[in-house]
Amino acid sequence: MIGYTCKYVPTELFEAMGVETKRIDPNVTNYDKAETMMHANLCSYIKGVLEDVMSSNYEGVVLTNCCDSTKRLYDTLRKEFPDKFVYILDLPRKNTEDAVKLYENSIMSMIKHYEEFSGRVFDKDKLKQILQSKNKKKEYKRGRINIGIVGARCNDGIMDVIKKSGAEIAFNISCTGDERIFDIKNYDNLLNEYVKELFAKIPCVRMVDLNKRKEFMTRSKDVVDGIIYHTVKFCDIYSYDYVEIKNKLNIPILKVETDYTKQCEGQIKTRVEAFIESLNVIKSDEKSDCEKKYPDCGRSSMCVGCDADREKNIIESRNRYNDIKSDVEKEKSLGEVKSNMSSDKKIYVLGIDSGSTSTNAVILDGKRKIVASDVVRTGAKSSESARRALENVLRKAGIDKEELSLIVSTGYGRVSIDFADKNVTEISCHGKGAHYLNPDVRTIIDIGGQDSKAIRLNDKGEVIDFVMNDKCAAGTGRFLEMMARTLEIDIKDMGPISLNWKEDIKISSMCSVFAESEVISLIAENKEKPDIIHALNNSIAGKTNALLGRVGRESKFMMSGGVAQNIGVVKALEEKIGEELFIPEEPEIVGAIGAAIYGLESINN
Q1: Is 200 helix (H, G, I), strand (E, B) or coil?
Q2: Longest Cα separation, the chain
Q3: What's the whole-number mean pLDDT along residues 442-450?
Q4: Buried b (16+ CB within 10 A) or exposed e, 217-237
Q5: What is the pTM of this model?
Q6: What is the tens place of the pLDDT at every residue in 488-524?
Q7: Please, what sign has the CA dihedral across residues 548, 554, 555, 557?
Q8: Of all helices (H) and strands (E), which one includes residue 377?
Q9: Is there a contact between 317 and 290 (Cβ–Cβ < 8 Å)?
Q10: Most C-beta atoms within 10 A of its C-beta, which of 206, 374, 479, 556?
Q11: What gap in Å lies between CA 491 and CA 476, rounded to an integer?
């Protein structure tokens, strides 16, 4: 089996020699082995490829000279695996006749080397058959939400999350995602035509002429509802590409930056699911053609569809709807319609938010009133913490679990709560919860145990945009807990103590480790605790304010999460924003409230 990393690798040539090829998609937890062979600061994807090669049974690996990190990977593979077929193709950056000829020569040289290495013989007739079988473009099924994948190599984990969220992938033009479709016109000069077809694909950002890529992205607005842009951490070339797409295309776009480890899966899942949930909101607000042409058609679940030209069917659907509606009204007037749920039975819905530091539960009744709430510390197992929160909130409400009509989970641990009936991302739940507590709120600042979020809402409490800082603990509840331990004070006392500051000192680093070192140095300099805490609060406020800048500032602002109970951080943020923050009485339960509201809405619908 031959592994490859670039869409310009001629995999069909190996297929013509009866060799299986595989796109290398690393799925590792660390780079311990790779970092003994390569510099630790190299691209995480490249280190992941090396880890994958070491743990898999590849006969060889074929690369292109697409970047310096790939060239270093080639050097390492040649040194560490002398018995494998390791080859790097000289890929031109231009798409000209000379460039095609240059790449054709590079490919022919590779074929010669592989024939000598393996004893196999390249068969042009077999290649012709393979290319003829790959001349039909795949038909994508249009779904309710259609997503385009753009950027650097996008792993299968992101694809799975998109599909499980009910969306369709309309196209994938990431590094290795382009379809292997070929339209060969002249089979007499097969290899040259094949190379031309490789260069005819949507160019990656390494290529000089990106006009075809830009034209494709412009046309994509009519095909997709949103774009997920994946890039590998510190891959600058794709960071520039993202900025250009975001600024020039009027289409929702989510940037997902990973280091290609398994540990990123939770962060990816939350972001992608929340993005698709927001696209569903946008989609539901858009009127279909038939709704615009027939505003009084009485659309119902029996509607035949959105084809505005099918006037007869639409009118028939409207008439059937009106007939049924009339019958129901008659039955109601005669008292013959009975509810599926007896009138004396109360509705209770539980929303449970499983976070990294606390698990929060809220029970709402059918009138959207809070019956009971509870907050417990999240322990080593989120499922056990959820059970404790469930037992506590049921005891406070004075009801049994069987009386709950629905349980909705949210938060990072939502999928591990096995007694939940459904789960929703914390992004959407915070929007619902904030709107419930204060309908005027348009921007939420949520600082939890392990991440920070800025969420922008519309007037219905629906999420229209969000950004997250979930790559490190800087500026989160964990960060403050670390600083409290270093200062030898209770975290609950940090806010009140900080209000007595006198000297305005600065803490330059927001990294939890380096910031702790700075705090220790300030303690050694006999700086007062209120001044040190005030400096920490300002650092958190500055980082959070930068998040707001990315999502867009829109009044009125609300703060949720456990850190909202820290008066020092709240004051520092208000100073940065220039506006008073709305702080709920219990800021930790906002997400749980939103989850419960989702449950009530699903029952009503």
Answers
A1: coil
A2: 89
A3: 87
A4: beebeeebbbbbbbbbeebee
A5: 0.73
A6: 888 889 989 999 999 888 877 666 666 778 888 888 8
A7: negative
A8: strand 370-377
A9: no
A10: 479
A11: 13
